[in-house]
Amino acid sequence: MNLSMLSISTAGIVFSVLGGIVLISAILFMIIVPFKAWLVAIFAGAYVPSYKLLALKARKIDALMLVEAYIQSQKNGFGFSFSELEGYYLSGGNCKALLSALYKAKNSNIALDAEKAKAIDLAGLDLMAIVDSAVKSKNITIENVSALTQDSFEVIVQVKASIKANLNMALNGNDENALRDKISSFIIGKIALSGNYKALLSRPQNLTSDWQKAKIDNDNFFQIVSLEIGKVEIGRDVGSEMAVKRAEKEKAYALINIEKEKNDEILRELQMKTAVEEKKAEVLSAEAEVPKAIADAIKEGRFSVMDYYKLMNLQADTALRRSILSDDKANKPKE
């Protein structure tokens, strides 16, 4: 009896010790290992070894977040392993954004490669916002695009475009502003090729009729879904303005030429007066030499005093005759 009781007591002690060890082990496991993450993985059917969870905890990484990302990857068929997601997170990636973006792209029938999605996210771009812009188009308006038609009328148009993100060009494509500039350049070129503004007003849709052939969005992050003209206005009649300015310019040149000719005439008159005065000065100088020459001739005996008086009388008589003739001409009645 005593041996039987001793045997039972020994077995109870052993079971108690084993039970205590199991309980302590379970408690230690729950304390050391991220238990919630481990439990979530178990119930979701996406088993993750406890040592991996323990390693995450040791590195102060959110194990539950990685487990939830792994579960989402398995359920949606993305095929990421737990180690792959861990490495992606450690490299600076956002696992939740990656899987959400892939899920949305898949449900929206948009081709998004996992490696491309990772590259976009690791580049610091908002992956979800980019996928959203690829799923849902947005409308942009370009105001006051103006150019001259071939008949020199200024045409001002408003351009409306619907655009979507092109995921393949997310990393190396030009931005929205570059696309706006390309659209503006395309419309300006079409206006410049228009023969006259009236034809353009009657069919403004011709300005955007072949935008697909032009491949405006070829190297852009955004691709054009639709392109149309919002409104068309006629600005200045540049041809008439240029004609008026040309006439004003010609008038100004004509006035300058007239003034120049007038100044040239005045200059010529002054030159002639100067020449006359110079000749008069020469005559006076020559006349001043006459008395000296006469005095020298008298002194040398080549000219007598009587000859001198005769010369003086002749000059006085000539002057008198000229005076009489001038008076007769002045008093003669005009016919």
Describe the protein:
- The chain is mainly alpha-helical and 335 residues long.
- The protein is built from 13 helices and three strands.
- It has helices at residues 2-32, 35-43, 50-58, 63-76, 82-90, 95-107, 114-122, 127-135, 176-193, 197-202, 211-214, 238-300, 305-331; strands at residues 138-148, 153-165, 222-237.
- A three-stranded antiparallel sheet has the order 1-2-3.
- The longest helix has 63 residues, at 238-300.
- It is rod-shaped, with a radius of gyration of 56 Å.
- The chain starts with a helix and ends with a helix.
- The model is unreliable at 25-33 (pLDDT under 50).
Q: Which structural category do the helix and sheet elements fall into?
A: mainly alpha
What series of H and E elements makes up the topology? HHHHHHHHEEHHHEHH
Helix content: 55-70%
Separation of termini? 189 Å
Mean pLDDT: 78
Overall body shape: rod-shaped
What's the helix count? 13
Number of strands: 3
Sheet with the most strands: spatial strand order: 1-2-3
Q: Approximately how much beta-strand content do the residues carry?
A: 5-15%
Poorly predicted parts? 25-33
Provide a quick synopsis of the model.
The protein is mostly helical and 335 residues long. It has helices at residues 2-32, 35-43, 50-58, 63-76, 82-90, 95-107, 114-122, 127-135, 176-193, 197-202, 211-214, 238-300, 305-331, and strands at residues 138-148, 153-165, 222-237.
Describe how the helices and strands are arranged.
Elements: H1 2-32, H2 35-43, H3 50-58, H4 63-76, H5 82-90, H6 95-107, H7 114-122, H8 127-135, E1 138-148, E2 153-165, H9 176-193, H10 197-202, H11 211-214, E3 222-237, H12 238-300, H13 305-331
Antiparallel strand pairs: 1-2, 2-3
